[in-house]
């Protein structure tokens, strides 16, 4: 069973020189001032399987728990993130 803190950990799949990825990261960092959660950015170019899976859809925000549920992609969808957090409470 996952600890409750695990459910508030997220992953951003993206690329280092991606302006949309940087925008999503900045939005998430700003949101951390209001909601307690953690996230990490994973560069898909370090793994051919991730490139195959996400390539042109980056950035992709996913949950860490379970099957890594996709929350949103391209831009931070705060309504989708709120819905995810409401679901895991």
Helix content: 25-40%
CATH topology: Glutaredoxin
Would you list the SSEs in sequence order as H and E?
Answer: EHEHEEH
The CATH superfamily is Glutaredoxin
Unreliably modeled segments: none
> What's the pLDDT, averaged over the residues?
91
Biggest β-sheet strands, sense, barrel: 4 strands, mixed
**Overall geometry:** globular
Distance between the termini: 15 Å
Strand order of the largest sheet: 2-1-3-4
The domain count comes to 1
Count every helix, treating DSSP H or I runs of 4 or more residues as helices: 3
- Care to count the β-strands? 4
In CATH, what is the class? Answer: Alpha Beta
Tell me what the CATH architecture is.
3-Layer(aba) Sandwich
Estimated share of beta-strand residues: 15-25%
Computed over alpha carbons, the radius of gyration is 13 Å
